[in-house]
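Hypothesis: this fold can be encoded by more than one sequence.
Test: take the structure tokens below, design a sequence, compare later.
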């Protein structure tokens, strides 16, 4: 945990520090050493949020891109259940930075708990993920959406990372920070069966769109428009294929009559 409440203020860990957990109000102890990043932990071995995971430097660097008051926000649902969100924006988007493997059941629980959730996934947790991702990008094609650089992945199951996150139904961004220091890959939540659509998205653009309250427009206006364009295109292709088949069959039938 990055913050504890010390003298009524959100405070980062410091040597010898003691504070209060913003979620459960129990005592926190500062852990400051040379191996792990400075953090707060509950006294003893308990943790009040079973969704919480040990933070990496990757987590911490991402959190630092957002205002202090947005970080580590205790979020309640209508039943009183509570969890600590990595980041909660002014427009109530919850940004979760995910490094470790997440079981499908827990992922779905988080999606249900947070009504507006976006994931940022550490794409370098497994070495094979980067290799597989580079391969599918190389084999991808341009999606039929004007001049927008959207990559269409016809066999997403060939990437373990895509296979795990394809059908979660919320925005997902893959961060290959050693592959490209400025580009995230946005897995569009288009819900088109058997296909994945990826768009390069700069890291700074991701930060700015949340700071400037533009993420609602992206998710609720632009993405549905993109889905409609792609679905219309695929429908037209399908109709042409059917019409061509029926036309050729009619010609064959007529030729046999004579």
């Amino acid at each position: 945990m990055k913050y504890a409440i010390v003298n009524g203020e959100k405070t980062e860990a410091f040597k010898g520090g003691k504070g209060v957990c913003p979620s459960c109000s129990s005592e926190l102890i500062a852990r400051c050493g040379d191996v792990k990043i400075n953090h707060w932990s509950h006294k003893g071995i308990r943790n009040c949020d079973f969704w919480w995971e040990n933070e990496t430097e990757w987590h911490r660097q991402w959190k630092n891109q957002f205002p202090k008051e947005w970080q580590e926000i205790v979020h309640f649902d209508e039943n009183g259940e509570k969890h600590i969100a990595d980041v909660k924006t002014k427009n109530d988007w919850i940004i979760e930075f995910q490094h470790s493997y997440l079981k499908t059941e827990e992922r779905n629980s988080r999606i249900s708990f947070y009504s507006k959730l976006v994931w940022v996934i550490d794409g370098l947790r497994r070495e094979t993920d980067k290799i597989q991702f580079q391969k599918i990008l190389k084999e991808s094609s341009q999606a039929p959406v004007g001049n927008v650089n959207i990559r269409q992945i016809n066999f997403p199951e060939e990437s373990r990372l895509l296979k795990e996150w394809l059908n979660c139904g919320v925005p997902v961004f893959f961060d290959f920070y050693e592959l490209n220091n400025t580009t995230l890959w946005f897995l569009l939540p288009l819900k088109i069966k058997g296909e994945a659509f990826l768009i390069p998205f700069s890291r700074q653009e991701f930060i700015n769109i949340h700071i400037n309250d533009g993420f609602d427009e992206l998710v609720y206006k632009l993405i549905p428009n993109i889905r409609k364009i792609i679905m219309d295109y695929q429908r037209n292709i399908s109709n042409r294929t059917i019409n061509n088949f029926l036309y050729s069959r009619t010609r064959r039938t007529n030729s046999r009559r004579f």
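The first helix runs from residue 57 to 63. The chain has a mean pLDDT of 88.
Hypothesis status: open.
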